[in-house]
Amino acid sequence: MKIVVTGSSGRIGWCVYHNLVNAGHDVLGVDILPARPDVKNSLRVDLTRSGEIYGALGQFKAEAVVHMGAWSNPGHVPDQDTYRDNTAGTFNLFQLCADLGIKRVVSASSAQVYGLADHPPEYVRMDESHPVHPLNCYAESKIAGESAAEYFSDNFGLSIASFRFMGVRLPSQISADIENIKQNPASGRWLMWTRTDARDAANACRLAVEADELETDPYNITGVRAVLNTDVKELVRTHFGDEVDIRDDQDGTLSPLSCERAKRAFGYEPQYVWTETDRHEEGA
């Protein structure tokens, strides 16, 4: 399959590019930043300029797109630019996919839409029906992207999976994160004591692109287990309070963010499950 990966110079996009290439797909990486040396097929593209996207998708004759290109958090540029660029780039991309007949898109959203830094969850395990509480311009832009996905699905027949990624890190970064959370469990609260190996995030993108059918929906994508050996229910009560509804599907080890929808839809099952005692550094 001919697949365009936007944001191919970024942490997730770079892993997605290589995952797809290794699976035998013909992949074009696009990014506003220079390509990494090991991204062999790439173009410099500004997603806010629709003509540049049209040229990249059309010339390559893309059949699917994995859209990871965006300002990855607030603070890189002024807030109004974060929101404008992320929403414009996403809308431009979806519109041009509709114009060119590209029906399959995986698009990066974020678990920041839940606002866990300030708002305790209403229940755990949290599924995609949980209320959202965006706390910044980045999270607002991701909600706008999910809304645009619904619009293009309803009006143009696109299948767009919006991935609410949480705690995605490169393998080289996760051990240090775990040690920091062990020293200060409260610091792990807003990412629910969970880390996602970027290799698993990339694999989720490939599985969704390759799926026979794909519903336009948000999908939580994160690690399957919390990284601490402490009982997760105890962590939730201690750091979020007793008002959180701890449901039957929350045991003592599973991440409080449920990825069951992604598992049912396209078989997402993390291969690199990081905990205090299980580490998966590259080459280990």
Describe the model.
The chain is an alpha/beta fold. It has eight helices and eleven strands. Helix 5 links the parallel strand 8 and strand 9. The mean pLDDT is 96.
From the structure above, extract its key features:
11 strands, two-stranded parallel ribbon, single chain, alpha/beta, Rossmann fold
Using the CA coordinates, give the radius of gyration: 18 Å
Low-confidence runs = none
Secondary structure category: alpha/beta
What distance separates the N and C termini? 32 Å
| Largest sheet geometry | 7 strands, parallel
Strand content: 15-25%
Helix content: 25-40%
Question: Strand order of the main beta sheet, please?
Answer: 3-2-1-4-5-7-10
- Averaged pLDDT: 96
Provide the CATH architecture of the domain at 2-114 and 128-168 and 197-223 and 258-266.
Answer: 3-Layer(aba) Sandwich
- Say what the CATH topology of the domain at 2-114 and 128-168 and 197-223 and 258-266 is: Rossmann fold
**Helix count from the secondary structure assignment:** 8
The CATH homologous superfamily of the domain at 2-114 and 128-168 and 197-223 and 258-266 is termed NAD(P)-binding Rossmann-like Domain
- Count of distinct strands: 11
CATH class of the domain at 2-114 and 128-168 and 197-223 and 258-266: Alpha Beta
Question: What sequence of helices (H) and strands (E) makes up the elements?
Answer: EHEEHEHEEHEEHEHEHEH
